[in-house]
Write a structure and sequence with these properties.
The chain is an alpha+beta fold. It has a single domain, classed as Umud Fragment, subunit A, CATH 2.10.109. It has four helices and 13 strands. A seven-stranded antiparallel sheet has the order 1-2-13-5-6-11-12. It has a four-stranded antiparallel sheet with strand order 9-8-7-10, with no helix packed on it. Strand 3 and strand 4 form a beta hairpin. The longest helix has 41 residues.
């Protein structure tokens, strides 16, 4: 009788053991998923450099880890932000959503904040009337300075008389002085002669800033002739490089 009862109980015990095992794994996977989404949303996120607008500092094929908490991460759906550790400062490299393309992340260097007067003369940036030392800026076109009709938006922000605004004719390397409105930011790419930045599409809001890149966690030189260039053309020297 006891042997028969033991035999009948074994399948039930085995079934309960399997159920507990599956429940523990489900909890572990759900916990890991929640942690991953929480970290990605509020702490750090990966970002890939798709263009050469920051060359000299960042290269096409660099993969960055971006600190989203430093300026206060955005809370999804609530349209609110967590408390920030600091505010964006001139010289910071930022990841943000530009006003003309709000679904796409851009990475540029912040050069002006609300109240600043900015001007560029023969490729030299001036902040509040004084030249800015920019060892990170790169210039590859010493001769050309094409007129850009896309820059005419600056007319409304030119410092000076109405006559100066009417005669204003900005170019890539010579523009301003313009005044940055309160709550707005102005950013340039380090590769100044090949960067679509605030010169062309204007200021962006502080609320559009998503974070500050920390370091390069992976990098490779893309080569369309090599199918596995992401594996064979790794830039080992760039991995772990801190972004300044």
């Amino acid at each position: 009788m006891d042997e028969r009862r033991k035999t009948m109980d074994e399948p039930r015990g085995s079934s309960m053991s399997t159920g507990r095992w599956m429940w523990e794994w489900t909890k572990a996977i759900c916990t890991a998923l929640v942690l991953f989404l929480g970290i990605r949303t509020f702490v750090v996120e990966a970002y890939k450099i798709p263009t050469g607008s920051m060359e000299g500092t960042l290269l096409v094929g660099d993969f960055l880890l971006v600190n989203k908490a430093v300026y206060g991460a955005e809370i999804p759906i609530a349209h609110a932000r967590l408390p920030a550790f600091t505010q964006p400062r001139r010289g910071d490299v930022l990841v943000f959503l530009p006003p003309h393309d709000p679904e796409r992340n851009y990475v540029k260097r912040l050069v002006g904040v609300g109240g600043d007067t900015l001007e560029m003369r023969d490729k030299t940036l001036f902040l509040n009337g004084k030249p800015v030392s920019e060892p990170y800026a790169r210039h590859v076109d010493p001769l050309g300075d094409p007129y850009e009709s896309r820059m005419l938006w600056q007319k409304d922000f030119v410092a000076g008389s109405l006559r100066a605004r009417r005669r204003y004719r900005p170019t890539r390397d010579n523009w301003g002085p313009i005044v940055v409105p309160p709550g707005k930011l102005f950013a340039l790419g380090d590769n100044r002669d090949n960067s679509e930045d605030s010169r062309y599409w204007g200021f962006f809001s502080e609320s559009a800033v998503k974070g500050r890149p920390m370091f390069v966690y992976y990098s490779f030189e893309k080569d369309i002739s090599q199918q596995f260039s992401w594996l064979t053309a790794v830039r080992w020297a760039r991995i772990g490089e801190v972004i300044r």
